[in-house]
Specification:
The structure holds 4 protein chains of 4 kinds.
Chain A: H1 6-28, H2 37-60, H3 66-85, H4 122-157
Helix pairs in contact in A: 1-2, 2-4, 3-4
Chain B: H1 2-23, H2 34-47, H3 52-60, H4 62-82
Chain D: H1 7-28, H2 30-58, E1 61-64, E2 85-88, H3 90-113, H4 120-139, H5 143-161, H6 170-200, H7 205-211, H8 216-233, H9 241-248, H10 251-276, H11 282-305, H12 310-334, H13 339-378, H14 394-407, H15 414-429, H16 431-455, H17 472-490, H18 492-508, H19 510-518
Antiparallel strand pairs in D: 1-2
Helix pairs in contact in D: 1-2, 1-4, 2-3, 2-4, 3-4, 3-10, 3-13, 3-17, 3-18, 4-5, 4-10, 5-6, 5-10, 6-8, 6-9, 7-19, 8-10, 9-10, 9-12, 10-13, 11-12, 11-16, 12-13, 12-15, 12-16, 13-14, 13-15, 13-17, 13-18, 14-16, 14-17, 15-16, 15-17
Classes of the chains: A mainly alpha, B mainly alpha, C mainly alpha, D mainly alpha.
Chain lengths: 158, 88, 115, 521
């Protein structure tokens, strides 16, 4: 993929930070507002795709590193499954933090309420784990397929 | 020959789908909704999350979500394995 | 019948996907067919969860006393969308691999395996 | 914390955790990944055996995710379950044992077989994920969870089939075909799930089974589920993916693919017996399954005879052997509504069909492994180019003879035991079916005699001068399967009585299945 015109690059520079922040907002508020780990992760992943498209696959590998993404991906998944395992005292995936008064352990006000960040038990933590996994998975997929496309093209010429 | 067989299979399959669509309960009026009503009423109390969908995704059906994250991980490993000879 | 129009739309969606799979010869078009079926099925699930005049099942600053739509189909659809993304990524990668080796995407020419 | 209650989830979670860890370990040391995978799979094999002992002595097990107790299926006086659960009865653990053995053997075999390949960490990660997917399909009691595991298994198998696609075009082609087939079947399964959900607002197998009415929509759901699950199991006329995928995958993966397609077969039986049971028109559906079986047996074996590629030939035999399972279980289903006939020969036919699943996984796995060993040393899969390999590879020759004798149904190997059960009982149902089954068996023997002759016998060929016996770990893997085959062949009654009969009964008795979850036996 070649890099695109200066207009596209300028707009990308201006916009991608907002997209990433919006994605993290969706991840962090997954238990209160529409959204969650997957949706937020997909939004952040789309920012990476935007960067890749506008800067081209060769230039963008300077600041989007596949290795770091795959490290984060494994980290997110292991965090997720460890959260599942830590409920094993009772059952796998038991929500051991909900209504316990500790981390994210406030009981929710039943019925309509303005929302309290400190509720939900393991749900916000799982949102973060899954969000991390999804955004880095998107990054890896997009980068790998872009470099693979480059490879395919070269092969064809020779 | 192949096209005729495919055509017959397609027609049978499509008629199955059409019949199921026509026989389905009316749009917007779920006949039974006990399981979902249970979620709507009890999700806040049991999990503490305001968003009922999230509490289903991560609590009641949390294992599905693990499977789903695994599917994504599998796809990533598969894509990387397919292009593994490619130097960046 | 008229009340079931959304289901009919879903079925036409799926039917188009199946048609694409069966009668198109291009690998990318076949991938598009799979995506069409997938979107049709997702639409079907989300259609099942609708309840007339109801709001989204989220309590944060919701209008009080309103009925809520069924939340389970939304959770299922979320799962199925992510699975769909994974499927699409892999299917396109394999198509790219085939293009690399054969230099074509036509199914009639990509046929070393037969018999 | 009593870990023995958590065995069902540990069987799945340990390989899963290992699959997530393998890419991290692979950054440090590529060799360690294979050992980690083998360790994780051996732990899960031991746990599966422990669970099997528990289930066969105590009874079916449930494991509810996220509930306050692993066996609390119905929270606070509800009539239906709201959480995902594993529900493992004798049939589920029967399939689980097959998967555990096959995956463990496959991992050991891979240690040397795949050593020359690049990307080993990805390979082992995918192998573990495939195992997890197949285990999940067999253990789950939730219909949507089944779909998720089906997708895990099919995506992992696609990536593994096209694993050699970096150098060759054919594996990528086979992978594409398999991907399209498995996406269609998974999506149609999801559509059927939507139909069930829209009617009953339930997603649990047992709860659905207790309310299912066999209305028009249920008939359509059945009509959608049977063909797509049969397609995933590789039945004729939807078998076009089987030879490609089986022949292009690396040999240990082919063995796992056999187990994966048997998991789809299991799902088909589960849908027909546990979900619908007596409410469906058993005779019609039974005959449909029998016809699938007949077509698979006959077309599979006739296509196999003309093949020149050794793995393609074996893949067509896999299609043909799947037919026996369809035949046996189909006869059992056809007489389900008739208690006398069921007792007379129906149960025996089903025992034959179900026993054949396990036997098939063992001997077909062994045969694919020997084909892989031949490829490993001689570098070719073409039968016309091989010859005289018995001079160089003594152990492989012995294992091939064992496998070939078992698949052809010669005593005293395990194929004979299950085929005899099928012949006897099917003869009482319809003599013609039994005769077809015997003819297919003879053709199978003829085909394998041909393979043996052209690959192993004959004079020493100059181009194979360098060929020697395969490494020890590969011999060990094949020896494990051979021992199982001989053991099953020598003591079939023991296995049928203790493993197969409970599995058949857990399929037939629907009330027992629903009662495990809903109570009120």
């Amino acid at each position: 993929m070649k890099e695109m015109s200066r207009i596209v690059k300028t707009v990308t520079n201006f916009v991608y930070g907002f997209i990433i922040i919006f994605g993290f907002y969706i991840i962090a508020h997954g238990h209160l507002t529409p959204g969650g780990g997957f949706q937020g992760g997909a939004v952040v992943g789309s920012a990476f795709a935007l960067l890749l498209v506008s800067y081209g696959s060769l230039n963008s590998t300077k600041f989007l590193k596949k290795d770091i993404f795959s490290l984060f991906e494994s980290f997110g998944l292991i965090l997720f499954i460890v959260l599942g395992f830590s409920g094993l005292g009772i059952t796998f995936f038991y929500n051991f933090l909900a209504n316990s008064g500790g981390w994210f352990g406030n009981a929710a006000v039943i019925g309509v309420n303005p929302g309290d960040m400190n509720t939900g038990g393991v749900i916000p933590l799982m949102n973060i784990a899954v969000g991390l996994e999804v955004l880095s998975a998107f990054g890896v997929i997009v980068l790998t397929m872009a470099s693979g496309a480059e490879f395919t093209k070269k092969k064809e010429k020779s | 020959m192949k096209k005729i067989i495919f055509g017959i299979a397609f027609i049978i399959f499509f008629s199955f789908l059409i019949v199921s669509a026509v026989n389905m309960r009316t749009f917007g009026e779920p006949a039974f909704s006990e399981m979902d009503d249970y979620f709507i009423e009890n999700a806040q109390r049991e999990t503490g999350a305001n968003n009922v969908v999230t509490s289903i995704v991560f609590d009641y059906r949390g294992f599905d979500t693990l499977g789903e994250a695994t599917v994504l991980f599998t796809a990533v490993v598969g894509v990387v394995a397919l292009f593994r000879g490619v130097k960046k | 019948m008229i009340g079931n129009l959304p289901y009919v739309a879903v079925v036409i969606f799926i039917g188009l996907g199946i048609y694409t799979l069966m009668f198109k010869k291009n690998l990318i078009k076949i991938a598009i067919g799979v995506v069409l079926i997938e979107n049709g099925v997702n639409l079907f699930l989300i259609t099942l969860g609708y309840r007339k005049g109801a709001i989204a099942p989220i309590y944060t600053q919701a209008p009080s006393g309103q009925a809520m739509v069924l939340p389970t189909p939304q959770a299922l659809t979320l799962t199925s969308i992510v699975i769909g993304i994974a499927t699409t990524a892999l299917i396109l990668s394999v198509a790219m691999m085939i293009y690399k080796h054969y230099g074509t995407l036509d199914t009639d020419e990509v046929r070393r395996l037969k018999g | 914390m009593n870990l023995s209650n958590h065995i069902p989830i540990l069987i799945i979670a340990i390989p899963l955790l290992a699959a997530f860890l393998v890419p991290l370990i692979g950054r440090i040391n590529k060799e360690a990944t294979g050992i980690l995978a083998t360790l994780a799979l051996s732990v899960s094999l031991i746990l599966t055996i422990a669970l099997a002992v528990k289930i066969l002595t105590v009874g079916p097990q449930v494991y509810v995710f996220g509930a306050t107790s692993p066996s609390l299926t119905l929270p606070s006086g509800l009539k239906f379950p709201v959480r995902i659960m594993f529900q493992i009865d004798a049939m589920g653990i029967f399939m689980g044992l097959i998967t555990a053995v096959v995956s463990f053997v496959g991992a050991i075999y891979s240690l040397m077989f795949m050593k020359q390949n690049s990307g080993l960490d990805k390979y082992y990660s995918l192998l573990l994920l495939l195992t997890v997917g197949v285990f999940g399909m067999e253990f789950t009691g939730d219909i949507f969870n089944f779909f998720v595991f089906l997708e895990i298994a099919s995506i992992a198998s696609v990536a593994l089939i096209s694993f050699r696609g970096i150098d060759l075009g054919e594996p990528a082609e086979a992978g594409f075909k398999y991907m399209v087939v498995s996406s269609i079947s998974a999506l149609v399964v999801l559509f059927a799930i939507g139909i069930f959900y829209g009617q009953y607002d339930l997603l649990n197998f047992a709860a659905l089974a207790s309310v299912i009415k066999y209305s028009q929509l249920d008939k359509i759901a059945l009509g959608l589920l049977i063909p797509v699950l049969a397609m995933k199991a590789g039945a004729v006329p939807m078998h076009m993916w089987t030879p490609d995928a089986y022949s292009e995958a690396p040999a240990p993966i082919t063995m796992m693919l056999v187990a994966a397609s048997q998991a789809s077969l299991y799902a088909l039986f589960r849908v027909v017996f546990s979900l619908y049971n007596i409410s469906l028109n058993a005779l019609t559906v039974g005959w449909i399954i029998i016809i699938f079986g007949l077509l698979s047996m006959f077309i599979g074996v006739t296509m196999a005879i003309i093949q020149k590629d050794i793995k393609r030939l074996m893949a067509y035999h896999a299609v043909s052997q799947t037919g026996y399972m369809f035949l046996g279980v189909g006869v059992g289903l056809a007489v389900l509504a008739n208690p006398e006939a069921l007792k007379d020969y129906g149960i025996t036919a089903m025992e034959g069909g179900i026993f054949h699943i396990m036997n098939h996984a063992m001997y077909k796995g062994l045969l694919f492994l020997t084909a892989g060993a031949l490829f490993f040393r001689s570098g070719t899969r073409d039968l016309n180019k091989m010859g005289g390999l018995a001079h160089y590879m003594k152990y492989t020759t012995i294992f091939f003879i064992i496998g070939a004798a078992a698949i052809a149904g010669l005593p005293p190997f395990n194929g004979f035991a299950s085929k005899l059960l099928i012949y006897e009982s099917v003869y009482k149902f319809n003599p013609l079916l039994s005769i077809v089954a015997m003819v297919v068996s003879i053709l199978t023997l003829a085909s394998f005699v041909k393979v043996f002759h052209s690959a192993f016998l004959g004079p020493k060929l100059p181009q194979f001068k360098e060929v020697k016996e395969v490494p020890r770990s590969m011999v060990f893997a094949m020896a494990v399967l051979s021992c199982i085959i001989i053991f099953f062949g020598l003591f079939p009654d023991l296995i049928v009585k203790n493993l197969v009969h409970p599995a058949v009964m857990s399929l037939i008795e629907q009330l027992q299945y629903t009662g495990t979850v809903l109570g009120g036996m």
